[in-house]
Write a structure and sequence with these properties.
By secondary structure, this protein is an alpha+beta fold. The strands form two sheets. A four-stranded antiparallel sheet has the order 2-1-3-4, covered by helices on one side. A two-stranded antiparallel sheet has the order 5-6. A hairpin with a 2-residue loop joins strand 3 and strand 4. The protein is globular and about 40 Å long.
């Protein structure tokens, strides 16, 4: 059985960054495995999640080397939309993340 998530030799630096957030990162996560992503502010937690959901490299740009495979899909060829049925991210304050349209063209959360 193949791992659910595989990162192989991943190096990533944001545009104009002086150094990469990750350098030659490799890991495998098996289906059913529980992973907690923790660290200080600026340590790369959000960047790691952006690698998994395809925002990197499709939205953020910068220097990206290596491969990220999620559920058999390479994030180089599968963007966020193509990964959305297998990857979801809910941040610490979910209400600040979700926006739905209400009547009158206004955006916000329904009470």
């Amino acid at each position: 059985m193949s791992p659910l998530i595989t990162l192989s030799g991943v190096t990533y630096a944001y545009p104009l960054a002086e150094r990469p957030v990750f350098r030659d990162l490799s890991l495998q996560i098996e289906e059913g495995e529980f992973l907690l992503v923790v660290g200080e502010s600026g340590s790369g937690k959000s960047t790691f999640l952006r690698l998994l959901n395809g925002l990197i490299p499709h939205f953020y740009g910068g220097l990206f080397r290596g491969n990220v495979i999620v559920a058999g899909r390479n994030t180089r060829t599968h963007g966020p939309r193509a990964l959305s049925d297998v990857v979801g991210v809910v941040f610490q304050d979910p209400e600040a993340q979700f926006v739905v349209e209400r009547g009158g063209g206004r955006c916000g959360l329904r009470p």
